[in-house]
């Protein structure tokens, strides 16, 4: 059994998609980030960066004590290695998956996240910031579109690289993007979205978070943290 500390964000969706695809037994433990539940001491023992998702694997491959993992990319890699699925066993195939997994973690996720913040949540509209991140999201979509020109999935076979990237493309309209501008990306996006496991993962999200609107109080919790928050 795997305990998944989860909220309905793109990074959270990555892990439910993997767990559904792999057919692993898991239990969702909601971490309502708008209420500050990510700062609870018990959660910080698992995720010291006070971010979700995080997991606790009560049946690790080498037996012994449970294993906890934070950071969504690290979780995907851990689960892929645990199950021997969604990552190639050969050197070159593994490198292909890992470099695109890190591309998402270092590029697509952070840039799309800033896109969301300045377009939707910032207390004042800053045109330069909005334009900056809309353009960078567009650039990254174009990179992925070019990559997908001669292959069905990002690293050839369906893998954790696809699971990592897909949730960050889901809010493309809010990101100021047009999928029609990137036909290879659009084809890939529709293919992933039609997978039964992906549909199940997103259905589970509806049961966890029934209110998608971010309140002003939640914004203070989400965006008002600094070093003092950690030191407390």
UniProtKB/TrEMBL annotation:
SUPFAM superfamilies: GST C-terminal domain-like, Thioredoxin-like
Sequence ranges assigned to domain GST N-terminal in this UniProt record: 1-87
Domain GST C-terminal residue range list: 90-212
InterPro entries named among the record's database cross-references: Glutathione-S-Trfase_C-like (IPR010987), Glutathione-S-Trfase_C_sf (IPR036282), Glutathione_S-Trfase (IPR040079), Glutathione_S-Trfase_N (IPR004045), GST_C (IPR004046), Thioredoxin-like_sf (IPR036249)
Homology family: Belongs to the GST superfamily.
Protein name, per record: Thiol:disulfide oxidoreductase
Organism, as annotated: Paramagnetospirillum kuznetsovii
